[in-house]
Amino acid sequence: MTQYVILEGVIAFFLVAGGAFTFIGSLGMAHLRDFYMRLHGPTKATTLGIGSMLIASMLYFWVVDGKPDIQEMLITLFLFITAPVSAHLLAKTGLHLQLRHADKTLGMPVELRKEEVGEKPVPHPDKGHG
Amino acid sequence: MLDTALWISLTLVVAALALNVYRMVVGPDMPDRLLALDTMYVNSIALIVLLGLWLNTKDYFEAALLIAMLGFISTVAVCKYILRGDIIE
């Protein structure tokens, strides 16, 4: 009997932690000042939140049904693979549109060439059209 | 204990969805809205998982997997559209 109480506590902990991380991720996205800061919240905190929520669901149905299930594991795997890819593409989109950023946001878009930031055009290092 | 945890988690996820809607309405730029939409997909997966726990059924997890795939694909498609002006070159 005691083990069920402990398992219930663990499942409740994972549920509350997942909800808290999801909320923190969205709070960061709503509150931070520029796009490159806002990208941090959903890509890390929300992914961790949904991961722990799926762990809670997996543990619950394991305890109830008596056998482990693969579906939650599949969702977790898929989300953990795709979240960095979509974050990378969103960051590339932001750099491409040259969104304004706060002064404290450091770093330069390295993919921009010299003529794209208003300097003298340079020939491309590979092709060299000049 | 599990009921209380489920209520707390549901409240937090719904509050997170409200914040996503706020960011999607306010903007100010296109990638911000796209990021908010992507986060809304993930949060709706969380809602479906919580619904499965609430109703004590596993019927809805295929829908969660489908939403995960479609969310990723639509985010990538809109990103490519903004980057290139075209989806399939």
**Class of chain B, according to the CATH hierarchy?**
Mainly Alpha
Give the averaged pLDDT of chain B, no decimals: 89
Count of discrete alpha- or pi-helical segments spanning 4 or more residues of chain B: 3
CATH 2nd-level architecture of chain B: Orthogonal Bundle
CATH domain topology of chain A: Helix Hairpins
- Computed over alpha carbons, the radius of gyration of chain A is 22 Å
The count of DSSP E runs of length 2 or more, i.e. the number of strands of chain A, is 0
Summing up helix and strand content along with how strands pair, one would put the structural category of chain B as: mainly alpha
| Second rung of CATH, namely the architecture of chain A | Orthogonal Bundle
Number of domains of chain A: 1
Separation of the first and last Cα atoms of chain B: 54 Å
Largest interface: A-B, 52 and 50 residues
Question: β content of chain A, as a range?
Answer: under 5%
Shape of chain A: elongated
Describe the structure.
The complex is a heterodimer of chains A (130) and B (89). Chain A has helices spanning 2-31, 35-38, 40-65, 71-96. Chain A is mostly helical. Chain A has a single domain (2-104), classed as Helix Hairpins. In chain A, helix 1 (2-31) packs antiparallel against helix 3 (40-65) and helix 3 packs antiparallel against helix 4. The mean pLDDT of chain A is 83. Chain B is mainly α. Chain B has a single domain, classed as Helix Hairpins. Chain B is 84% helix and 0% strand. Chain B is built from three helices and no strands. Chain B has helices at residues 2-26, 30-55, 61-84. In chain B, helix 1 runs antiparallel to helix 2 (30-55) and helix 2 (30-55) packs antiparallel against helix 3. The longest helix of chain B is centred in the middle third of the chain and has 26 residues, at 30-55. Chains A and B meet through helix 1, helix 3 and helix 4 of A and helix 1, helix 2 and helix 3 of B.
